[in-house]
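Crash report, auto-generated. Payload:
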Amino acid sequence: MFRSPWWRIGWRNLGRNRRRTLFTTGGLALGFCAVVVMGGLNRGLIAEMIGNGTGMLDGQLQVHSSGYLPERSLYETIGGRDGTDVERLVEAVTADPVVSASTPRVFAGGLVSSGEATVAAALIGIDPGREPNVSTILSTLDEGRLPRPGANELVVGREMARQLFLSSGDETVLVAPAADGSMGNDLFTVAGIFDTGLAELDRGLALVPIAALQRLIALPESRIHEIAARVEDPWRAPDAAARLAEPIASAEAEAKVSPWTTFRPEMVSYATMAEGVEWMLLVIVFAIAIFGVANTMLMATFERRHEFALLLALGTTPGVIVRSVLAEAAVLSTVSLVVGAVITAPILVWWKLAPPDMSWLYGGTTLAGGLMRPILRVEYPWLMIVEAAVALFLVAVLAALYPAWRSARVPPADTLTGR
Amino acid sequence: MNRRALQLILAVLVFSAVTPLTERGSPLAGQEAALAEQESARDIVDRVDRLMRGESSLGTITMDVVTEHWSRTMEMRIWSLGTDYALIRILSPRKDAGTATLRAGNYIWNYLPRVDRTIKIPTSLMGAAWMGSHFTNDDLVKESRMIEDYDITIAFDGLREGVEVWEFDLAPKPDAAVIWGAINLEVRKDDLMPVWVRYHDERGDLVRTLTFSEYGQMGGRLVPALMEVLPEDKPGERTTVRYSDLEFDIGLEESFFSLRSLRGDPGRR
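Recovered output after restart:
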């Protein structure tokens, strides 16, 4: 088929009116470029949201006692009343190939009080050595330092610090209902203050070394509520959770492994919705393109109706005429695709490697519970690139169908006699 | 949490003793009972409701809390004045001894002897459990009165288990800021002693039951010495409060209920 002279004729026809070809090619190439770059930005936005949303505190994988969520009862520790071998469990989770780090946590609700002011807070017991490998919250410390393991120290959010008039080095009282029914209370020193930009964390969260929190709420060191783990590519977390379920369950009769897609379903919904937007973009851009291409082809074939009439008069079948026009459109779309790829690739690569800082225009915002840094991040939209290429090709060929059909129905005698 | 109707808990937990009952047992009792029957339901509840207003008292209670995960017994001393002021100090167990709660008006402070600090309970925590029991901080504070927030009707009038009682239905008035959907209250006719209170949510489901028993003379008055709270959503859990001694009209002033007293030594009056 590609040997047929019609391909060469199609190619040469593009050279007949170079300016027109240039505009059509440019239009299609720019459409392709726009769709792919927008798709890349969209993927970047989704990745940013999921990465920050799960990376700030949750982690991409969590292990709990199966009865822990959603009530978060103090008593529902991994391994039940007897607790678990925390070190061994952390190692077992970290052993998975896609898990880069994991860390144990204890949760409690209580009061943080300083002077006249008291606020209710979620207290999370963390391992100051391991936590920074799993979540990014401790990297947002804008004052002070990490709490020392086992010490009666804590880090609180910026807004809580403001409400309690705290700065690092100050003394606070923590009060929390303990597992033995008593009111756990003790003095803690503020080691540092974090500023995540997420209001609910900055206002209502205090991080305490895990052993100190266990002392406060009368839990032995073997009793923890959660193991949180980091998976660099969040989309690989569900598979990792499925892989880990068996070894974890065999070690801890009642433990359950969940990926972020289960405990942050709103992020999955948002990602699905954002991906749907890509289709709308594709349809809109190429719907506009199809009319542009159809118009050009209609003009081009109208100019050549004498040629088609002669060919028909010499015995060429209408089918061959249709094929020749479609071949021209196919050549046009191929050229557009090459041009499109040539202008898109450097933009995408440059953008990916050096995402522009937009903080001069807007600050950090939150989306579906995830913090968005003020940068324009792109991810390579591989699927979108293929979709856009196919769409571009189809658009050019579809747009040529009507002009081709018209060309094949030129009445030879009337046209050649100028009637 | 619960609003108005918890007046009764307060009444017994914090104050106890029943003013009109001092006259009970006199030859006038029969006449009074007859008179009471003619009163509207609202008037009767009003009388039960205001039993302890304006009285000062000092009592010692034993509070047993049984939950799914632990049970513990606490001994406490309670000073009170009217419905606005109360000071509760834990005597035992040793781990909590000296811990104290001060209620003045709508505010609650806790004193923690271990760290020697006083903490004001924020509004957002008023619904939280008080000292791990099935009472909430709010139960200690709410003091507006049942007759102001509820439409009251007599649901039953007659003999139950050999005792003449009234059962009242309390339905919240349309604009009342209360959390209960309905309250039922049973009161003994002859001495106006409360027998039980049942709290229902908006859907009409029973949420918790408060029962009174062991009526007896204490500090010269008739009081229910035992009170029990049974939360409906946690079967098997309960909090019981039992008075071991109780005095009335001990001459406390408002100034007694200060942060200084809150921190003060347990022996101090």
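Post-recovery validation: Residues 265-303 of chain A form the longest helix (39 residues).
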